[in-house]
Design a protein that fits this description.
The structure is a single chain. With 592 residues, this protein is of the alpha/beta class. It contains 18 helices and 12 strands. The strands form 2 sheets. An 8-stranded mixed beta sheet has the order 7-6-5-8-9-11-10-12. The protein has a 4-stranded antiparallel beta sheet with strand order 1-2-3-4. Strand 5, helix 12 and strand 6 form a beta-alpha-beta unit. Helix 13 packs across helix 14. The radius of gyration is 30 Å and the shape is elongated.
Length: 592
């Protein structure tokens, strides 16, 4: 993309200082400096938002939210420094700034797609594959960071004078004399100079703040990762074209005005990007489905060997707190097609075992009580309302707490969920609160006979609080004297590090005994029963045993013989294992 016509002089054909001074005080709303500073804002806005997209994608593929965001921020800051150093080699400021904007408009979305592509490769086995994929997945962070690092030095050259600028205007809106007095208490205060670096950097930081807030509150909740990154690319491309249009308009006073041929290739690319991204953003559902399911349909059933699971996505949506995927699957050796629900990084249920799971979670512990209709039950999670449907059979009073209001709405409106919950959200003894469970327990005075934890698996930092000493301590404090807590758990054989950390956490919260049991299903399609979900009943008081004859579940009655041992046990003690605390997390509790 070399320029066809060289600049007339080393200064790129700009007016001299005298001419700038004579023209800089124009009363026009749009000036060179304001245009350049607006471009600064957009570049910073998009760049930080790209990095947030990358962090979230890396969390999806590799887990560990805190780790992924920390590494992303570190690499981004490092690459900003590299870009700033390399910018000293750049000339022709206007041309290179436009190119940087265009390159960012390409690299930002392309980087997200590259992360998805690298992690969607067919199952190939070779030495060093995992570390190679991990390294390649972090390359887009560096590319966007280096390009963003060019920005401040280039824009500092563009915004040479401080007169008539955004911050000069802001200077009339705050008491500068008072500010200078306050600063003078701690610093040596002098007269402001003519340098533009601090102004450009200030707008850059402001754009970064706006990018993080808008991405977190608007883009990600509304559009999800895939469409958001194309929306950012569109904004980048529009900013580049607007900058070019200003220089060609004849209104520019300080910026060089190139001939039409100088930036022809760059402008054509910018126009193509703008049109392409606008088309993609205009059809968000189709784009999200096409890109997301390319990865998900290949990798979502990763525990099966390649070719053993045929997956077809039905819907994919993003709420503020999680991704919600519904899909069909055909497993090798299974005659029946299954419909399944997948939240974030974990499968929640398939229709062939959804009843056994909820029977184990709800019906088994309900049979330990002689009069279930008198119970006060707390259901943490259970946003699909299926557990509520089981509780309704016993006429128990139910307080449900779920943080994701959008998912609750889906479960009320979508036929996929209603076929399982039988409109249980209309149950007249149900009180649903949309709130974080830790906050709810801290604020409520209610006590409960039974607490059911229908919560997501411990696969990211977002769920750490639900597996913490503080949470289980609060749960214990809200139990009646005969109260029970029931949760599904990861097995000791499948996830030993997690199980040790979880057991230690629960014991640290004050529980010292548990009643374990499995529910059984034909999981491999051979006609026999295999252990499925594992459950723990925790008690701080008496240790009753379930009486399955009281169950109102066909599954429990039909499979009563599989529950052949009810034995309360002491929670094991692991001297070398720390509990998981909100303020001092034990990351062994996260299941990769």
């Amino acid at each position: 993309m070399s320029d066809e016509t060289p600049t007339d002089s080393a200064d790129g054909g700009r007016p001299d200082a005298t001419e700038r001074a004579e023209t800089g005080g124009s009363g026009s709303v749009l000036t060179d400096r304001r245009v350049a500073l607006a471009a600064t804002f957009v570049v910073a806005f998009c760049s930080i938002a790209y990095e947030l997209v990358y962090s979230e994608l890396l969390t999806v593929f590799f887990g560990g939210t805190v780790l992924r965001y920390s590494i992303t921020i570190g690499l981004y800051m490092f690459s900003l420094g590299i870009g700033s150093v390399l910018s000293a080699q750049l000339g022709e400021t206007e041309s290179n700034f436009l190119r940087t904007e265009i390159y960012l408009a390409i690299a930002g979305p392309a980087g997200a797609m590259a992360i998805v592509a690298v992690n969607s490769l067919p199952e190939l086995t070779f030495a060093g594959k995992e570390p190679l994929v991990l390294v390649l997945s972090h390359v887009p962070i560096l590319v966007v960071g280096v390009l963003s690092g060019f920005e401040v030095p280039l824009l500092t050259d563009l915004v040479e004078d401080r007169e008539d600028t955004i911050f000069a205007s802001l200077g009339r809106l705050y008491p500068r004399r008072i500010v200078r007095v306050v600063l003078g208490v701690f610093f040596a205060v002098g007269e402001p100079d003519e340098r533009s670096f601090s102004e450009v950097l200030g707008v850059d930081y402001l754009g970064s703040l706006a990018g993080t807030v808008v991405y977190a509150l608007v883009l990600y909740p509304r559009f999800g990762l895939v469409v958001s990154v194309f929306a950012l690319g569109l904004l980048n491309a529009i900013a580049a074209l607007a900058f070019a249009a200003w220089t060609f308009s004849g209104s520019a006073r300080v910026l060089s005005r190139p001939t039409a041929g100088r930036w022809r290739t760059v402008l054509v690319v910018g126009l193509l990007l703008t049109g392409t991204y606008a088309g993609l953003v205009g059809h968000p559902a189709a784009v999200d489905r096409a890109v997301t399911t390319t990865y998900l349909e290949r990798n979502i059933e990763g525990e099966y060997r390649e070719g053993a699971a045929d997956v077809r996505a039905l819907s994919y949506e993003t709420t503020r707190y999680q991704t919600v995927l519904t899909y069909e699957r055909d497993l090798e050796g299974h005659a029946q097609t299954e419909q399944c629900l997948h939240l974030d990084q974990a499968i929640q249920f398939c229709d062939t075992w959804v009843d056994s799971y909820h029977s184990g979670l709800v019906d088994v512990p309900m049979t330990t009580f002689e009069d279930p209709s008198s119970l006060n039950v707390l259901l943490v999670g259970g946003g699909d309302y299926i557990a509520v449907d089981h509780l309704r059979q016993y006429n128990a009073s139910v307080d449900q707490v779920d943080i994701d209001g959008e998912f609750l709405e889906m479960a009320r409106e979508r036929e996929f969920f209603r076929q399982y919950n039988d409109d249980a959200y209309e149950y007249d003894r149900l009180n649903t609160t949309t709130e974080d469970a830790v906050t709810y327990l801290r604020e409520t005075d209610e006590t409960y006979d039974l607490v059911l934890l229908d919560v997501p698996g411990a696969r990211s930092d977002e769920t750490l609080s639900l597996y913490s000493t503080e949470f289980y301590t609060q749960v214990r404090e809200h139990l009646t004297d005969d109260g029970l807590v029931v949760s599904w758990v990861y097995t000791r054989s499948g996830h030993p590090a997690h199980n040790k950390a979880y057991t230690t956490t629960v014991r640290d919260a004050g529980f010292d005994r548990y009643l374990p049991y499995y529910v059984y299903d034909d999981l491999d399609g051979d006609g026999g029963l295999e252990p499925g979900e594992r459950f723990y009943v925790l008690s701080d008081g008496p240790t009753p045993k379930p009486d399955l004859e009281r169950a109102k579940s066909d599954y429990v009655r039909d499979h009563a013989e599989t529950f052949d041992e009810w034995r309360w046990r002491s929670l094991p003690v692991y001297e070398d294992v720390e509990p998981n605390s909100i303020l001092r997390p034990n990351y062994d509790i996260i299941v990769d």
